[in-house]
Design a protein that fits this description.
Blueprint: H1 9-20, H2 23-35, H3 41-65, H4 81-96, H5 101-108, E1 121-122, H6 128-139, H7 142-155, H8 160-181, E2 184-185, H9 196-210, H10 219-226
Length: about 230
């Protein structure tokens, strides 16, 4: 992913709007409502459903942000409170992160590399008290307060340079979310069955492709349109 200051301004705004409107933010609000309800078997099932949406939103964010290779501190005045905060956070992330980028990408694809054994803690198997504690921690992360501020900046049509600074802060907050999940195994597809109508649609799409009625869009074209290298 390019430095957003090097992207076409229209592409930049499209990308930023995609990020701040990701499904993780709506799922987080629903999780908060459920976490304020008393524990019960029904509440646990509802939490698991919403956490699946939350996690899929995290994967969606990762699709865009995992290719961002810029140093978020590069070019920022070093003595500002924001720079000092981001420096502390980045040092914490780099000191505590146990996985490489390739290992994290592999995890999100549903597999583990030989160098990255599956964590012993499985989110789906956590006792309810521990499960709710984890969710409360996740929904309280800084990423979510930053999203609200980021939305306000986009609505005000502030200069791109100001959005660039906000994006750097957003990116580091995303990395903190990623780090918080690193010690756990979670498969959002576990226990799910494909709906018959989805399978029927999938079969039809495959048939259309084989008959020449549809074509695949190369990944590099998709990435280019989204400003991702």
């Amino acid at each position: 992913m390019k430095n957003i200051m090097e992207m076409d301004p229209i592409e930049t705004l499209e990308l930023l709007n995609i990020l701040v409107n990701d499904q993780i933010f709506a799922a987080r609000e629903r999780l908060i409502v459920l976490l304020n309800e008393p524990p019960s078997a029904e509440n646990r099932r509802a939490l698991e459903t919403e956490f699946r949406e939350f996690y899929c939103g995290y994967e969606s964010l990762a699709f865009f942000l995992e290719t961002y290779e810029e140093d978020p501190l590069e070019g920022l005045p070093p003595h500002t409170s924001l720079s000092k905060k981001l420096k502390r956070q980045r040092e914490y992330i780099l000191a505590n992160r146990k996985t490489t980028l390739d290992e994290r990408i592999s995890r999100r694809a549903g597999a583990y590399m030989h160098s990255d054994p599956m964590p012993e803690k499985k989110i789906s198997e956590l006792p309810t008290d521990e499960y709710r504690k984890l969710l409360r921690m996740l929904v309280s992360l800084e990423l979510f307060s930053l999203q609200e501020r980021f939305l306000a900046l986009l609505e005000r049509n502030v200069p791109l340079a100001e959005l660039d600074v906000a994006f750097r802060e957003f990116f580091v907050a995303y990395e903190l979310l990623e780090l918080a999940l690193e010690a756990y195994h979670y498969d959002p597809d576990e226990g799910l069955e494909m709906r018959p109508e989805f399978l029927k649609e999938l079969d039809q799409r495959i048939a259309d492709y084989e008959d020449g009625k549809a074509k695949l869009i190369p990944a590099d074209e998709v990435f280019k349109k989204l400003g991702i290298d």
